[in-house]
Amino acid sequence: MSPRVNEILAGLARGCPDGEGLADRLVADCAHAAAVTGVGLSLTTDSGSGAVVVAVSDHRAGVVEELQFTLTEGPCVDAARWGRPALQPDLGSGVRPRWPSFTAGALAAGLHAVFAFPLRVGAIQLGVLDLYRDTAGPLTGAELAEALCFADAATALLLHLQAEVHGGGGLAAVDDRAEVHQATGVVSVHAGVTLVDALTLLRARAYADGTPIGEVASAVLAGELQLSD
User: Fold this and answer.
1) Dist. CA 49–CA 44, nearest whole Å
2) Are the CB atoms for 70 and 42 separated by under 8 Å?
3) Alpha-carbon distance 33 to 213, whole Å?
4) Which candidate in 8, 143, 221, 227 could, as Cys together with 153 as Cys, close a disulfide (CB 3.0–4.6 Å)?
């Protein structure tokens, strides 16, 4: 991870020492750092359907997050579906809208720009981070860099939250079970990645399958599952 992403995660840990409210703190911090009106964090499938809103920075962001998944169209859906950012700096530009129903709803809510960033580990889709503005205009270079760093931090946070559900540790914790360590080494060799990235792949697969990481590690060691970058 970059120093800025580590800084963001450290700030979350300091602001939420008991581990509660991490997602809410992340979207609030992102809205401030990227100078946007609102931010939403959602879990999504590869198709962008079946999404669950994890946190929003304000009411309008919540309304527009839900709108996308109700309509099954919008930048968040496209970002999840295609695995790349969907950036729309001017929803009311006058040209034929890319997402007509979503655009009408967003404009009615007073939002004029939206920037969606997919949260992925390799080929595994975890979620999407959406940034909204009540004025039209693109993100500056510095704002885009902040948004990308927060997207990386949000990916780490979603993996952490999944690990917590299955008895994991803190944001920077590494599972200390011998089986997980062994599987991490196996994935590192097979995928040609570092041990840190191999552990991330294990956690991502556990997240995607809704399975404890120990079970994923057992499958890797038994030769029943192979992970690649």
Assistant:
1) 6
2) no
3) 33
4) 8
